[in-house]
Amino acid sequence: KVLSIKLTPAYLEEKAGEEVMLKVSRSGRWTMDETFNLTATADSRLSVPGTITIPTGQSGTVVNLTVTDNDVVDDSSNVILSVEGNGYPTAVAHLTIEDNEHPDLRVTASKSIVHEGETFQLTITASHAPSEPLTVTLTSENTKRFTYPRQVTIPTGQTSVTVDVTAKDDDLPSEALSNVFTVSASRFNQG
């Protein structure tokens, strides 16, 4: 006896009304209805019925599982779906749900007024701790006026990192200058 499970697609982005086709197939005789237990690892974004029935005379059945958008910043998740029952070995399939809400990045300076030759700190903060090291690109409106790292890494599970920035002293008189530092990273809102 063989029981199989297939998901189409096996990867999707969290969106309201997005559906995943779940196909369950069985071997053996098809002389009667067979009901199987369907379970999924916890993910509130996926609606899964507790059972699925393959009708008499059919080798399988298809149901559509609905993904809902919870409007919350979540990590992407790997949902494991299992079908079992009626003496068949358990069949397993994996579904990846990629979150469509992106956390924010922001940058704050330790000083609002800086003089040439002075060093200050920028703190780069993510509104949601990354599940793997996050490479953040740091840019400035006036790159020639400051020495700073162009990329920094927020470690796994952390929400911030602080870096030193130096205002270059060019030994020339100059007017006061305003500057904006910007941070960006993949799957994060720019700050």
Structure description:
It is a single chain. With 191 residues, this protein is mostly beta strands. It is 0% helix and 51% strand. The strands form 4 sheets. The protein has a 5-stranded mixed sheet, with no helix packed on it. Strands 1-3-7-5 form a 4-stranded antiparallel sheet, with no helix packed on it. The model has no long low-confidence stretch (mean pLDDT 92).
Key features?
single chain; 191 residues; mainly beta; five-stranded mixed β-sheet; 0% helix; 51% strand
Strands, total number? 16
Number of helices: 0
Helix fraction, binned, reads under 10%
> Cα distance, first to last residue?
56 Å
Question: What is Rg?
Answer: 26 Å
Strand order of the largest sheet: 2-9-8-4-6
Largest sheet: 5 strands, mixed
How are helices and strands ordered from N to C?
EEEEEEEEEEEEEEEE
Q: Any low-confidence stretches, pLDDT <50, length ≥5?
A: none
Q: Approximately how much beta-strand content do the residues carry?
A: over 45%
Question: Helix/strand-derived class?
Answer: mainly beta
The average pLDDT score comes to 92
Give the overall shape, derived from the CA principal axes: rod-shaped
Which quaternary structure do these chains form? Answer: single chain
